[in-house]
Specification:
Elements: H1 2-22, E1 28-32, H2 74-81, H3 98-101, E2 104-106, H4 116-121, H5 127-145, H6 147-156, E3 158-162, H7 165-172, H8 176-181, H9 184-204, E4 209-213, H10 222-227, H11 237-260, E5 265-269, H12 272-280, E6 289-293, E7 320-322, H13 330-342
Parallel strand pairs: 1-2, 1-3, 3-4, 4-5, 6-7
Helix pairs in contact: 2-13, 5-6, 9-11
Signal peptide: 1-23
Protein name: GDSL esterase/lipase At4g26790
Organism: Gossypium hirsutum (Upland cotton)
Length: 349
């Protein structure tokens, strides 16, 4: 009898542990730019929006949401893979409230960067303001869940940062202000300093699980290939080299911060190699075109230039690596997310 009671206690205890294992990451909290903005820019006075067709034509119900894609973005797929929910809402979207945000929320703003000067270009949400929204969100969640449960939620949630491309392609290489102040190497260090301080602030606010993304092969975006048309529309190697150098420096900083901030679980995720693999060998992934985008002519259209009146938009986005001249298709986002979940995020599951 005693033996049976011991066995029963063992199985009851085991069953009680299962939910805890599945709840390793109870929410995903997102910061960044258009790669992870599900629609915050809809509520901002900026020309950089995507809440109109054909954006979102492959999203649930065929509805444009403000995501710069024909469907879901990478963080949506990551959330689904971690068994949280199939899409992460925008913090400024009035359709959602704190109950929705309790299991995942994005503060990201398309067009923003680490550098405040980058967000000024198109009047979008600066990176520092995203942190202020996070503090506001924390207060709301404490009222919703109670202080102790909310604080535990912050420490267990995955804080994901995806940003940086705009600092170079929308700012440094376009306007003379930063390029006259900094060499490329110095500007990289300037941005990484901002990233480091942002992570330190997240740590002070209770975050313990943080993933920061590196830069993609930004010289291979269709828009950049178009500017390189006189050279055969090849990728701009200079931009790709900058991305690789930045990623190397960022990885070094991540290593230093892990030593500095006790108890933090900090990792860097790099989309560079996987996206470059798709660009160089698109047929291996079922793509037909990795040089031009699906929307419009595929050379320069983005935001309002990629609208429902453009007669050149492709009929099947799954054949394309890029949706518009700057952003991946839903299929590409799904592949990148799957890669990140199986590699970088494996230790969080």
């Amino acid at each position: 009898m005693a033996c049976k009671l011991v066995i029963l206690f063992f199985f009851v205890n085991l069953l009680m542990q299962i939910p805890k294992v599945r709840a390793t990451v109870p929410a995903i909290i997102v910061f960044g730019d258009s790669t992870v903005d599900p629609g915050n820019n809809n509520q901002v006075s900026t020309v950089l929006k995507s809440n109109f067709e054909p954006y979102g034509r492959d999203y649930y119900g065929g509805q444009p949401t403000g995501r710069f894609s024909n469907g879901r973005i990478a963080t949506d797929f990551i959330s689904e893979a971690l068994r949280i929910k199939p899409a992460i809402p925008a913090y400024l979207d009035p359709k959602y409230d704190i109950e929705d945000f309790a299991t995942g929320v994005s503060f990201a703003s398309a067009g923003t960067g680490y550098d405040n000067a980058t967000s000024d270009v198109l009047s979008v949400i600066p990176f520092w303001k995203e942190l202020e929204y996070y503090k506001e969100y924390q207060n709301k969640l404490r009222k919703h869940l109670g202080k102790d449960e909310a604080n535990q939620r912050f420490s267990e949630s995955l804080h994901l940062i995806s940003i940086g491309t705009n600092d170079f392609l929308e700012n440094y290489y376009i306007f003379p202000t930063r390029s006259s102040e900094y060499s490329v190497d110095e500007y990289q260090s300037f941005l990484i300093g901002i990233a480091s301080n942002f992570i330190r602030e997240l740590y002070k606010l209770g975050a313990r699980k943080v993933v920061i993304g590196g830069l993609p092969p930004m010289g291979c975006l269709p828009l950049e290939r178009t500017t390189n048309m006189f050279f055969g529309s090849d990728c701009i190697d200079e931009y790709n080299d900058v991305a690789k150098d930045f990623n190397k420096k960022l990885q070094g900083t991540v290593t230093e911060l892990k030593q500095e901030l006790g108890g933090i679980h900090l990792v860097m995720s790099s989309p560079y190699d996987k996206l470059m693999e798709m660009i160089r060998n698109p047929s291996h992934f079922g793509f037909e075109d990795a040089e031009t985008a699906c929307c419009g002519t595929g050379f320069f259209e983005m935001s309002y230039l990629c609208d429902n009146m453009n007669p050149f938009t492709c009929s099947d986005a799954n054949k394309y690596v890029f949706w518009d001249a700057f952003h991946p298709t839903e299929k590409t986002n799904a592949i990148l997310a799957d890669y990140v979940v199986k590699t970088t995020l494996a230790e969080f599951q």
